Amino acid sequence: MDEPIKIADVGLANTGDAELVPVATTQPALTLGRADSEMPALVAAGGAAAQFAWEEFIYGKIRNPHTRAAYAHAVSQFLRHCKSIDKELPTITPRDVGSYLDGLVYAPATKKLHLSALRHFFDTLVTRHVVVLNAAASVRGERLQVVEGKTPEMSAQQARKLMTSIDVDSIVGLRDRAIIGILIYTAARVGAIAKLQMQHYFDTGEQYCLRFAEKGGKSREIPVRHDLQQFITAYLTAGALAGTDKSSPLFRTAIRRTKRLTDNSMTAGDMGRMLKRRLKNAGLPSRLSPHSFRVTTITDLLSQGVPLEDVQNLAGHADPRTTRLYDRRQRKVTRNIVERISI
After folding, report:
1. What InterPro entries is this protein classified in (predicted)?
2. For the chain, which residues make up each domain, given as ranges?
3. Architecture of the domain delimited by 156-334
């Protein structure tokens, strides 16, 4: 059976990374919408086994909160459709699933997510002997081939302009420079940066490292280059944070007018909004997001001839094909070609 589609977290939303630290120190986990958190009428009417299968599928099998919310919405929406056409769980057929998907006015990727949710849900129903066969197993999704990611690209020149535009006369400027420096020089996801605690920035005796709690429960250590180390040290020194509790957040919110730090951790959303303000101040496109730095860093390293495997390891991708989606070198070649058209 295919693996659940993970819902990526980018930009201004929470990321849904696995919680490896106490919830109180990070952004709150996603909760299901009211319509999706309620047990669907068809499931309730299906008896104890169907009800058990629903709770097992939503709350037992899916650990990522974003995936859980997306799958619960997809399945609940489909079951409401089935109820409207007087279908019960055992009578749902592949035709019902296929016709439903054909009627969805969604992008192919979203339809693929809905189909994945239905396949996993019906598989659970089969396991719990609610239905005999998986009605979604044989349904084909729309052909979707992604050769390049949709994350907007930030050029190296734009990244440099952004960094030099930050006023570091205040603790807030030093904090923001350190956060953006980590985005650039580690290719870490903004959700992982938001989870950093004081203990996650440490000296190994040879160099400083950052330990990130990444998606899928992965823990990764990335060396800190010298200029980034200076950014972080300047921020910690100005904020008098060096001697604080190891479990306290590394990056904290600030009271805007006084520019004094609080004891509260910045969330991924806080960092995203901070970046939008910094982009506006630097005169850079607002469509750029924290995830744009991953595109910049990955493309830059590949352009220098760094092996794909090494870049993949830095980005924390399980599959090199994911890393290639961030590579925008081919776009530059295409521009060169079209510029040569002599019509």
Report:
1. CB, DNA_brk_join_enz, Integrase-like_cat_sf, Integrase_catalytic, Integrase_recombinase_N, Integrase_SAM-like_N, Tyrosine_recombinase_XerCD
2. 30-127, 156-334
3. Orthogonal Bundle (1.10)
